[in-house]
From TrEMBL, chain A:
<dbReference type="InterPro" id="IPR051680">
    <property type="entry name" value="ATP-dep_Glu-Cys_Ligase-2"/>
</dbReference>
<protein>
    <submittedName>
        <fullName>Alpha-E domain-containing protein</fullName>
    </submittedName>
</protein>
<feature type="domain" description="DUF403">
    <location>
        <begin position="1"/>
        <end position="308"/>
    </location>
</feature>
<dbReference type="InterPro" id="IPR007296">
    <property type="entry name" value="DUF403"/>
</dbReference>
<dbReference type="Pfam" id="PF04168">
    <property type="entry name" value="Alpha-E"/>
</dbReference>
From TrEMBL, chain B:
<dbReference type="Pfam" id="PF14403">
    <property type="entry name" value="CP_ATPgrasp_2"/>
</dbReference>
<feature type="domain" description="Circularly permuted ATP-grasp type 2">
    <location>
        <begin position="82"/>
        <end position="458"/>
    </location>
</feature>
<dbReference type="InterPro" id="IPR016450">
    <property type="entry name" value="UCP005522"/>
</dbReference>
<dbReference type="InterPro" id="IPR051680">
    <property type="entry name" value="ATP-dep_Glu-Cys_Ligase-2"/>
</dbReference>
<dbReference type="InterPro" id="IPR025841">
    <property type="entry name" value="CP_ATPgrasp_2"/>
</dbReference>
<protein>
    <submittedName>
        <fullName>Circularly permuted type 2 ATP-grasp protein</fullName>
    </submittedName>
</protein>
Amino acid sequence: MLSRVADTIYWLARYMERTQAMLQVIRIQYIASQDEPHYWGWQPLLNTYGDLSDKEIAKRAPHTPQVLYHLVFDRENAASAYRNIVQGRENARAVQDHISKEVWQSLNDYYHLIRHDAVAHQTLGEDPVSGLDALIQQGVLYVGTVQNTMPRDEGYIYLKLGKFLERALQTADLLRLNQHLFATENESVAGAPELRYLLYGLLGYELYIKTYQGHLEARSVLELVLYNADFPHSLIYSLGQLLRYCERLKDKSRPESYEHLRFLIGKARTTVAYSTLQDQKGEALEKFLAQVRSELLDITTALSSSFFGNG
Amino acid sequence: MPANTLLTSYQEHPQVWDEMFRAEGVRPEYQHFAAAIENLAGLEMTRKDELAKKLFMSQGITFTVYNSGEGIEKIFPFDIIPRIISNSEWLRIEAGIKQRLKALNIFLKDIYHQQFIIKDGVVPAALVYSCPQFVREMMNVSVPHDVYTHVAGVDLIRDHDGEFYVLEDNLRTPSGVSYMLENRSITYRIFPDLLPKSNVLPVKDYPALLYRNLLALAGPQTSDPTVVLLSPGIYNSAYFEHSTLARLMGIQLVEGRDLIVHNHFVYMKTTKGLEKVDVIYRRVDDEFLDPLAFRPDSALGVPGLYWAYRKGNVAIVNAMGNGVADDKAVYCYVPDMIRYYLNEEPILKNVPTYQLADPEHRELVFGQMDKMVIKRTNESGGYGMLIGSAATEQEMDAFRQAILGDPRSFIAQPIISLSSTPCYIDGKLQPRRIDLRPFALCGPSGIDIVPGGLTRVALKEGSLIVNSSQGGGSKDTWVLGG
């Protein structure tokens, strides 16, 4: 497969996974902002998914429709959902002969949906949850279309690598954003609402309730998000999937490139797998998450230089 | 019973050859088709028209217009009424194009080697050397099997007397063949059963023939040659065609940045490392192909490609430097080339052409500018031209000044009143002007022309410009079997 094609497909997957993750988090944040008397504000999300200065953020943060516009629909914001979707579709257009026609059409529909005024109007003027749901649903349709129609060839492997790398990065970033919840020793209930919204944002609340029988505590939440192999948004799950798809590249790449990539993914996975909750108290968690993040970035660099010819 | 007015209400232009109707009624090649649509209610035709539009949109058969930063995709307008050509007429067109291409191919070899045609005084040296598309770098370069014009899209028009004329030979990177293929695949969806019953010859062999020719250009020492299609990328207006052809032939669609030249061999960068490339079907113009040999600011090409080509390490389709035979002033000499190289009389006529570098011609043309089409010799796509009958005094003056400044770059032709054909517009049949671009493939084993081509339509009422960039559309083109 051409390096450029692999690169384009990989980024297509990353853009779409990123869109999905951020829309879900924005949706939950919005619900929290409505339902929570001591709501903690939009600042952290504006920092993560926006390109505004601190002054601008302070100015906009109290106005929910403005925030939603900037994060989801703003064509000037390079990190908005709109720009992600446009980028994803542009990538798909460049590799149309390597993805199935159905995948192309689902991305094309997604693009037309977010360009259409109706959904922006609904999100900003009527019920934001319905508007965001419509977008999220189109994203889910894309995921299912990939699953159902893409041939399991090299292109599919790069789609999966992009997807799970992005997911691992998003999970790690979301944890970093919320690390104050895990910092304190005393397990008071004060952090409980925030913990619940963190789980909602990762689509893990139901699994948590089933696993830990309704008792919401920071340690268990961290355990689920880091180590639960059945939880599709846990770090260990994403890293396991990365390893799985990387191994399918064995006969499709140069031996030295493959060995290097396999080593780096194995290393990141080991970093997570052989850590314990005991080590993750206070500042140690921040250090640990920073290490995971940098090891994930090493993987992206290796892919870019040895497989996509950008080295 | 309400009379069906679809056919009877058709108003053809006087003084214009109509492809479907003549004074006595429907022409024989259209009779089967006319009988089939005669009994359709008007509503049903409209439904077919809508179905065609839907099929084009959902299959993404679009071209991109970049004018406001963000690309807008438009469908290439398609008219559902096919253009039909009888078998005997087609055989003449086919023979005429083959003859022309044979002569043009020899001309290109000659002009880049011994130049007998100049020495014998048939074509003036000044004309060839003043042509900006004459590529000096191609002098004495041997191309595989001496084939230069692998893919040609010859533009034909029909005058009011029914005679076909060649307007342009398009020997560089002609486009439109994907629309020929897609138009056919839409037609059999909207007119079920009509194609086999009318004995229409198929066009679907085009990708296979092209691929066969491309493979044949790889050196005999390569057992499993790699053929690629080189595209300028998704921002090119013909990108849809590039990706369609690559998909139909099962070859890689590459961009300049995917290729590198090492030791005068061309490689593509893959996830498995470098892979040697043997044949490049390029849809990038000459001047952008290699920044080291041609335009240094080109980001679409591959540095070093020219030397790899020159050494015979890679085959490039079409050959570099074909533009010299495509020049509209050189075009005047094609009938002479046919006589000189083949010792035959031309089968297809040229449109009479005045070279404005000649003072006598210039005077003649300036005297009757309102009856002339004036064109730049090296432009295409309907740009850089003036149609005298529709031009203002001011526009004519501007052209006069430009011609006097650089007479070599202009030619003039009498206005040919293109033939018309019925189009289904606003619920009724209306005459619109058309041309015809059949696609010819030259390979080591000879010249093949799939029976058909792209019929382009000037959708604006009364317009003579059929180019898609200027509001043109297209029709399916049926060639009937013998």
